[in-house]
Specification:
- The complex is a heterodimer of chains A (259) and B (390).
- Helices cover 18% and strands 29% of the residues of chain A.
- Chain A has 259 residues and is of the alpha/beta class.
- Chain A folds into three domains: 25-101 and 142-218, 2-Layer Sandwich (Beta Polymerase, domain 2), CATH 3.30.460; 104-139, no CATH class; 224-259.
- In chain A, the strands form three sheets. Chain A has a five-stranded mixed beta sheet with strand order 1-2-7-6-3, with helices on one face.
- The two termini of chain A are 54 Å apart.
- The model of chain A is unreliable at 11-32 (pLDDT under 50).
- Chain B has 390 residues and is of the alpha+beta class.
- Chain B folds into two domains: 8-61, no CATH class; 69-389, Cytochrome-c3 Hydrogenase, chain B, CATH 1.10.645.
- Chain B is built from 15 helices and eight strands.
- In chain B, the strands form three sheets. Chain B has a three-stranded antiparallel beta sheet with strand order 1-2-3. Chain B has a three-stranded antiparallel beta sheet with strand order 6-7-8. In chain B, strands 4-5 form a two-stranded antiparallel sheet.
- In chain B, a hairpin with a 2-residue loop joins strand 4 (177-178) and strand 5 (181-182).
- The chains are: A alpha/beta (259), B alpha+beta (390).
- The interface between A and B is large, with 60 and 72 residues.
């Protein structure tokens, strides 16, 4: 940013109430400075927040935007550090969003060595044999909240932090970062609405886009649309039959029924 | 104001302590402003609690235009979402295209040819002129200047939309950009027509500014109203002209220098008071800077392809990974966050909507002001519901 800031509006005619005079002197010192690498940021966090449990998540794409996964127990402390640290000064939470990672069934081929008894040349022997086996395991899924941080003061970014829930069903709490960055207020409400992550410590956690009576989380990957959002049982045969079928489904607690 | 008031604390959702204590003993009046209020720029509702004329609480209610764009985009290919981005902020389809293209280009590392970069800057800045002029027009409309300034703005907007139509085939739903370039090249005749329109715009801006800047009603109603402090603006993720009106020097065109913005000379106007008047004036001044950029771009635009002929559009599968790309859209920071799992569809497709996030501070700006000022403060944020609700 070359030269002085351009302030064309510093004078006023009528009606000026002297507001903002304090801001004629720049509240935000502007310095161009290269952002530290993720490894350096990780080291800085670990030095100032003991036991933070920061994990590096590498991004294989050409964008090179690597991220840091924080332990939920220390997330607020780390976030406060990132915001208030003089070198990082990540004062601007730009984007907060959720990602759904459903349970994954992975089949992998594993080489297994076992001892097999075999008859070789008419003699019983114990022979070691390597066999390829296909094994299936289920990798448990999780919900993830991703935050993109920038610095308005230092003009750098993004630094990406991620938080992960324990699972996708009953342990979906994460600490809210709204007390640190107000910008997360609506975005965390949206994540709660569409993904179902419950942010503890959020001042006003309600649905943002769907209506309050709605019962599922539409952005989850296993979400099934209901068969009919607005059914109207009337005396007409066709509609009545549809409504009855709909209600029977809903009573059976089937997915795709009444929500 | 009289009538049967509603006791706020019994209403679920109003779960934050009151920031302003009502005066006296009277009951509070709860008003639902919108979703059909003409000043809400679409279908937007504010649940306002009033103590007489004073606003005690204000809760925005969203979702009337929600169609889960992100889910739809996750079920379709990368390219198929491009025309859909036009419908986000339908006043500025070009910048929506651009933000999405930049995010995908970050994900794949595609290069954009010179001429395409210039065309992107030209259509992007024309969009900014359209958006800022209309935003000011709507603001004055809400102040009671019924139609005249808005029609001045729309007269110029029409000329620019004609240019868009000549270039892309559509006035608003342009579907112009592609990953690694632009869909069609501009003809020399189109560039001449654009030069002609751009050379006529400074006269319009002068006229518009003379009409409004010193207007006593506008000054009386806008100065000192809806003040946004810079610390709160930064903390609440406010971006675009609203952030700069609060005096924070942050323009992504300068900070990231995406595209070829490093080559152009332009200034970033900053407000000193953070009120409605500053937001209005910042938009006017940004139109002037945009015209400067347009002149430079139209002068320097080189010949060449607008798209790598070998670029693959169909069957497009980026390598696994993620990318966040953002641009300075006319309303603020518009970002796209994409996660690829190597498939033909994005695994995660997220839009960072400036309109929604700029509304975070709406309550803070409105508390304590008159109910008539709420309309103006809301108008000065400049939102489009297609982007807020997605």
């Amino acid at each position: 940013m070359a030269g002085a800031d351009y302030h064309p509006l510093s004078r006023r005619g009528i009606g000026t109430k002297g507001l903002g005079k304090a801001w004629n002197e720049r509240a935000f010192v502007i310095e161009e400075q290269a952002l530290k690498t993720v490894e350096e940021i990780k080291a800085a966090i670990e030095a100032s927040v003991p036991g933070a449990g920061v994990e590096l998540v590498l991004n294989p794409s050409v964008s090179g935007q690597h991220s840091l996964r924080l332990a939920p127990s220390h997330a607020v402390a780390v976030a406060t550090f990132l915001r208030d640290d003089r070198d990082l000064a990540l004062d601007f939470l730009s984007n907060a969003t959720g990602v759904d990672w459903p349970d994954k069934e992975i089949s992998e081929k594993i080489k297994v060595t076992r001892t097999v008894s075999k008859t070789v040349d008419g003699v019983d022997q114990q022979v070691e044999e390597t066999v390829e086996e296909t094994r299936k395991r289920v990798e448990p899924g999780c919900l993830e909240a991703v935050y993109h941080l920038f610095s308005v003061a230092k003009k750098h970014g993004p630094v990406i932090i991620r938080l992960k829930t324990v699972n996708r069903s009953d342990q979906v709490e994460l600490p809210s970062l709204t007390p640190v960055w107000r910008s997360a207020e609506f975005q965390e409400r949206e994540i709660f609405d569409l993904f179902g992550i419950v942010f503890t410590g959020h001042p006003d956690l309600r649905r943002l886009l769907m209506w309050d009576e709605f019962k599922d989380h539409p952005m989850r990957r296993d979400y099934v649309e209901p068969d009919d959002y607005e059914y109207e049982p009337t005396a007409h045969d066709e509609v009545l039959a549809r409504a009855q079928a709909h209600r029977a489904k809903a009573e059976a607690g089937q997915k795709g029924g009444d929500r | 104001m009289s009538g049967s008031g509603v006791v706020l604390n019994k209403n679920p959702g109003w779960n934050r302590p009151p920031l302003i204590e009502p005066e006296g003993e009277g009951e509070l009046l709860e008003v639902a402003m919108g979703p059909h209020h003409p000043s809400t720029h679409g279908v937007f509702r504010m649940d306002v609690a009033l103590d007489g004329e004073r606003v005690i609480r204000l809760k925005p209610v969203f979702g009337y235009l929600h169609r889960n764009h992100e889910k739809i985009a996750e079920g379709s290919s990368y390219l198929a979402s491009m025309p859909f981005t036009d419908r986000l902020d339908y006043m500025c389809p070009m910048t929506n295209n651009w933000a999405y293209a930049i995010a995908v280009e970050k994900l794949t590392g595609q290069q954009v040819p010179e001429r395409a970069e210039y065309l992107r800057v030209i259509v992007g800045e024309l969009t900014r002129v359209v958006n800022h002029a209309s935003a000011i027009g709507f603001l004055t409309q809400e102040m009671g200047a019924s139609g005249t300034p808005l029609m001045y703005a729309f007269k110029e907007r029409e000329k620019i939309l004609d240019l868009f139509e000549a270039l892309t085939g559509a006035r608003m739903m342009v579907n112009y950009m592609r990953f690694g370039g632009c869909r069609v090249d501009a003809t020399p005749a189109w560039l001449d027509a654009t030069r002609k329109v751009v050379s006529g715009l400074p006269k319009f801006v002068d006229e518009f500014e003379n009409l409004l800047r010193g207007n006593e009603i506008l000054m009386a109603r806008c100065q000192g109203v809806g003040v946004l402090r810079p610390e709160l603006a930064v903390n609440a993720g406010v971006s675009g002209p609203m952030l700069r009106a609060s005096g924070v020097n942050y323009d992504i065109r300068k900070v990231d220098g995406y595209g070829i913005y490093n080559r152009f000379k332009f200034r970033v106007p900053l407000g000193d008071h953070g009120d409605i008047y500053d937001r209005f004036m910042i938009r006017l001044l940004e139109i002037r800077e945009s015209l400067g950029i347009l002149e430079q771009a139209l002068h320097d635009i080189p010949a060449g392809p607008v798209m790598d002929p070998k670029a693959k559009l169909r069957g497009f599968r980026p390598k696994p990974g993620e990318a966040y790309g953002r641009i300075e859209a006319p309303k603020g920071e518009l970002g796209f966050y994409l996660i690829s799992d190597g498939g033909p569809n994005p695994y995660r497709y997220r839009i960072r909507p400036p309109s929604l996030i700029n509304l975070t501070v709406l309550e803070d700006m409105c508390l304590g002001s008159n109910v008539a000022d709420v309309i103006l403060i809301f108008g000065s944020v400049d939102i489009v519901l297609g982007e807020v609700d997605r």
